[in-house]
Amino acid sequence: MIRLKSVHEPMEEDGAARYLIDWKWPARKHHRALRLTGWPRQLLPDAGLWNWFHHAPLARLTAFRWRYFRQLDQNAKYWAPIAHASESEGGVVLLSDAKKVRVVPAQFLKEFLELQIKSRRVPKPVKSKRVSSQREGVAPPVDKAISRKRGLPLKPEMSFMQEQKRTRGIS
Fold first, then answer.
1. How far, in Å, CA of 140 to CA of 153, rounded?
2. Separation CA 59–CA 47 (nearest Å)
3. In what order do the strands lie in the sheet containing 2-6?
4. pLDDT tens, 45-100?
5. Core vs surface per residue 127-165: b (16+ CB within 10 A) or e
6. Which residue in 7, 27, 59, 170 has its CB near the most CB atoms, within 10 A?
7. Nearest 5°: phi and psi at 48?
8. DSSP H or E stretch at residue 167
9. What are the tens digits of pLDDT across the range 135-160?
């Protein structure tokens, strides 16, 4: 069972696996309060697709859904663990920072996962060969104070624009 919830709603003790499906960490929310299983940012639509959709959301809804599903289909290693967790007793809760869960990536991801489970197209999870406590696709919470002491950047990943400049050779 897959459910959608806002991070602003009270959390229930139902034993469900909780995944944050959003680009940014919710403001004023501590990671312990959300009790997340993971934050798979690889399952979000890429920035180009999301920006294209938001220029005319009603007119492009069907095309966006189709393109996003195609993008998700190419990233099976990230959504397969969520699909397998949905078959457990507690199910899965997809969390979003939106106050009302309407047209957000979590809604489309839920629909995609339900279609994959119904058609039995969920690949078996692949065991990682790395010996690490970190799960693949899940970023650890960043402690800002520790990052500042060590001189590490607060955002370890490149932004979309930085990545585009790097790949295109634009300075």
1. 14
2. 19
3. 2-6, 92-96, 17-20
4. 988 888 898 888 888 888 898 999 999 988 888 888 888 888 878 889 888 888 76
5. eeeeeeeeeebbeeeeeeeeeeeeeeeeeeeeeeeeeee
6. 7
7. -65, -45
8. helix 160-168
9. 555 555 555 544 444 554 445 455 55
CB 117 within 8 A of CB 86: yes
Whether 101 contacts 6, CB under 8 Å:
yes
Token pair for residue 117?
């489970």
- What is the DSSP code string of 34-100? HT-SB--GGGSPPHHHHHHHHHSTTTTHHHHHHHHHHHHHTTHHHHHHHHHHTTSSS-EEEEES-SS
Name the residue with tokens 């180009």. 48
CA dihedral 79, 82, 83, 85 (to 10 degrees): 160
- The token pair at 78 is 């990230």
pTM reported for the whole predicted model: 0.66
For residue 14, give the DSSP letter.
S
